[in-house]
Fold each of these.
Amino acid sequence: MYMTTELDLNSAPQVAELIENALRNLSELCERRASIEKEINNWHMAIRGMAKMLTDPAQQNKVLSRLVLMRHPTGLTHDIKEALSKFPDGLTTAQIRSYLDNHGFDLTEYSQPLSTIGVTLSRMEKKLDVRSYNKEGKKYWKVTNIGYKLMQVVKQPTPRRKRSLPDKDKT
């Protein structure tokens, strides 16, 4: 999943070896983390599904409250950006909602999740985090790359005005 590149530090071969070992270890940890996060999301979805089968609303709320306490709160904006970063061709708002729901994000606190996602995407677009485009009559969203963002933000330098110095003869 994660790739390391060989480093060529001729002046410090011991440091290069240390760095390579550290990168290998970090790569293994990242792969384990991805696997653990996927398993956590699967358990969240399963427990949420089972909680819906409870007939007592108080029991249902108790289970869902415990789930909320165990979820690492990242926020809607972060999770939308994460979803879009995994799909370079972009996603529709409905596809983003499905992704969030399938990956453990609790959308039940929003009365209209599609609308909330749409408003969040519009805010993200104003900050140049995402951009939208139309394809086959549907609006798709994708994460902007840094080049696109920089082209939009960076302005041409303002030319400096020459200051005129007082003439020595006139003073």
Amino acid sequence: MAIVIRNACVVTGDAADTRYDDADIVVEGDRIAAIGVGAGAQVGAGADIIDGRRSIVMPGLVNAHTHSNEGFEQGAYDNLPLELWLLQSYPPWGMPRFTERQHYLRTMLTAIESIRSGATTVQDDFLHFSCTPEGLDGAVKAYADAGLRAFVTVTMWNRPLVESLPFAREMIPPALQAELAATPPPAAADFLDLFRQHHRSWHGHAGRIGIVLGPCGTQRCTDGLLQEVTALSATHNLPVHVHVLETRTQAVTAQQLYNKTMVEHMHDLGMLTPRLTINHAIWLTRREIDLLGDNGCSITHNPLSNMKLGSGVCPIRRHLRAGVNVALGTDGLTTSDTADIVAALRAAALLHKIGTPDYEEWGTAEEAFRMAAPTAAWRIRRSAASRSARRPTSSCSTARPGASSRSMTPCDSWPSP
């Protein structure tokens, strides 16, 4: 049976930013058949008619970077820069072992808040450093049950902590270094085996689940692991999702480890491809930004967490001018205290106005919306094998004027641009 949303204000979210003040949307099966003024007039009797006169109908929003594994710690930390926050939220001696059910419930909290804020797709950088299967199994089942489209990483971090921070060996007492060395991270082969297991089990599940390669950060992984990840990405045509230059400390780390900038080193390893998304991308040189643009890479902009951790302000205008695709994320629930993508959208629309008195350089609300719309997310997902045959069916949301972002209602079947 056809569905007609009649007389709605329609924001298509396409590349041309097409909008209608009063239009119909006709849905047949799992596809949108028509959008336009009077488009529903020719639909036969028996169609399900939805009165859209007091609604804005738009594509479901996309949260391009979050960490659902932080769902039980929302609001737990404050006034800590990233490197100190990591020691609190991801202690180097390990964390309590959760059951699959606990992982499921924790991710379900993120899924519920995502849906309430109008998100229908999330890219979940699921940080599970113990390298055991029950974590991602629980997370994926939660997304499947919630009805969200989710791209979930198998995270990887095989470089010891003291090697991933500048001057750590000089600053950390030898006895403490010995204690850290007694609990080394899993080996690269263990992470890669876990990825292959989850990819076989879950990739393409329900037509909505993707399994993504997730080296946690360039400086947190050995070059050998990064090269294996790059090869797997090429073989399976899969995205790579990695934190890069979130803090100034990481820029210093790159010079200490590689005697060059982080992105230059990634370029030397062959990592810069259209399949690569780097998260945060704050402390880049102009040369690094140009390298990303020249190679068709994407970044995720995470203004809420960047502010809370004092990490800095992502130079989105430079990225856009260089041809870098920019998508929007909330980041984790302990660094943004929310999975509400509308809150991140609002922050992205406002934050960049304080960087310069030249108002022509300020970011606009339209640009922030495009970062959260399927257009930007499609560019990230365009190389995924599960989406190579045709563009995916996405979802739309309706928001009633005067309602909060938490009152958005997801509706199935919106075609990605």
Amino acid sequence: MNKEHSKPKAQRSEDSGEPGSGGSAAGLAGLPADYPQFLAEIKARIAAARTRAVLAVNSELIRLYWEIGHEILERQGREGWGSGVTKRLSSDLRRMFPEMKDCRRQTCATCGLSRKHGQIGRFAHRL
């Protein structure tokens, strides 16, 4: 293999997509002087909003799993549910939501055990 082809090519500053990154001054011609700063501020706001969105989704999923675990424990105590029910529940949920990787019998049981033993109680109350 040719050594030149195995080396990653250095990105030219004109290709970085960042105004004011050392590229051609002609790329900023006709734009306000504070355009690079304005663009950077918008980019930071978008990144922050995306992060908040991901955190909100994660919080909702944790809350949901916590509630599911509580409901499973209640039914186990009240109706005598055994491992066969949680196994079937897990299987049915995986079939209904194939994109969800965490609908496993073990996860269902873990949600219930965590709820029962308060392992994540201090965290969950903040959700």
